[in-house]
Design goal:
By secondary structure, this protein is mainly beta. The chain is 4% helix and 34% strand.
């Protein structure tokens, strides 16, 4: 039986605030139906991160998390930073597995034309929690044919 539209399923995401994340908010939703939790930078107050055009940096978030088995967390860019400043995540989406217990780090890259300053508490990424499906891989001789076949990278228009 499917769930009625608008029904929310809740999954417990446990987080530990690390010493350098003291005073910063843990990941949180900024609207009632948001898919992603906003994540902030835990860089030192006195030492913002200067990200020159074309450079990348691993930005600390000041927390570690514990996902339930069967779930992953995906780090994704914030659309406003991408549009206004050319800032995105180099490995997007970044995957955090349920058995990882280290600090969540965000791999930012500046694809813009100006240096971007990351300050303590700036919202720098989104975290989306999603179920994981494991598959069994079976080696076969040929694949079932389809109308599309081997066409890729723009082959469907």
């Amino acid at each position: 039986m499917s769930e009625p539209p608008g029904t929310k399923r809740s999954v417990m995401l446990r987080a530990v605030r690390l010493a350098h994340g003291e005073g910063l908010p843990l990941p949180s939703y900024h609207s009632k139906v948001a898919a992603g939790l906003d994540i902030v930078a835990a860089v030192p107050e006195t030492k913002p991160l200067e990200l020159a055009p074309g450079t990348r940096a691993l930005v600390p978030t000041g927390f570690a998390l514990e996902l339930p088995e069967g779930y992953e967390a995906q780090l994704r860019p914030r659309s406003g930073l991408a549009l206004k400043h050319g800032l995105t995540l180099l490995n997007s989406p970044g995957t955090i597995d349920a058995d990882y217990r280290g600090e969540v780090m965000v791999l930012l890259i500046n694809l813009g034309t100006d240096t971007f300053r990351v300050c303590r508490g700036d919202r720098i990424a989104q975290l989306v929690v999603a179920p994981v499906t494991h598959v069994e891989v079976e080696c076969i001789e040929t694949l079932e044919p389809t109308q599309r076949g081997q066409g890729g990278f723009g082959s469907t228009g």
